[in-house]
Amino acid sequence: MNTIWVLLIVISILFSFLNGRMGEFTKSMFEGAKAAVEVALFLLGIVCLWLGITRIIEDSGLIHRLSGFFQYFVRRLFKKIPPEHPAITSITLNFLANLFGLGNAATPLGIKAMQDLKTLNPEGETITFEMMIFIVINTASIQLIPFTVIGILADYGSQDPSSIVLPTLLATFLSACFALGILFAFRRFLR
Question: Cα 51 from chain centroid?
């Protein structure tokens, strides 16, 4: 991957030199770097906000009520997880972060959920079917309200940044259903 990036940069410099646009190239490099820092800080703020909210939710005990609400869904998918195992809470927090479109904040929660699921794994380094289900759902990232995308669209001056809500919900829900269907089909036919 590093080779590809270096190649792209070298080709860009070469073409800007041959076309006599080194000044424009240099200007666009600095503008791109500035935009990258601004977006990174914006996303960092969203991640910090969500992680703070999840900490409050955990400390207040609300997460146990939320996990109780999601318990039926989680139990149907993750049949081998014991009723009071911490993986239920971790999975619930990850699903909620993804549901509200905070994928960047969902990453540390997903890592915690995988660590919790690993404690249930008797084979050590072999992935379990529950881990596979979690990876598939986490990757599909079903989103009810994609706050991060709406925020970025609004930041860049979109006339209707919330128009992304329905297409995002449909695309993420259908991709999750399709991926789970494939996973269960492979499990059934390729044991």
Answer: 14
Check if the beta carbon of residue 91 is closer than 8 Å to that of residue 113: yes
Interatomic CA distance for residues 105 and 143, integer angstroms: 13
Name the nearest CA neighbour of 85 among 50, 52, 54, 121: 121
Token readout for 141 is: 């990232």
**For the chain, first and last CA: distance in Å?**
35
pLDDT, one tens digit per residue, over 84-138 is 788 887 888 788 777 766 666 778 888 998 999 898 887 777 888 889 999 998 8
Evaluate whether 87 touches 70 at the Cβ level (below 8 Å): no
Closest alpha carbon to 91 in 187, 80, 160, 31: 80
**94: how many CB neighbours lie within 10 A of its CB?**
25
Q: Provide the residue count of the chain.
A: 191
pTM for this entry: 0.65
Q: Whole-angstrom Cα distance, residue 41 to residue 44?
A: 5
In the chain, which ranges are continuous DSSP H helix? 2-18, 22-60, 62-77, 86-99, 103-118, 129-140, 147-155, 165-189
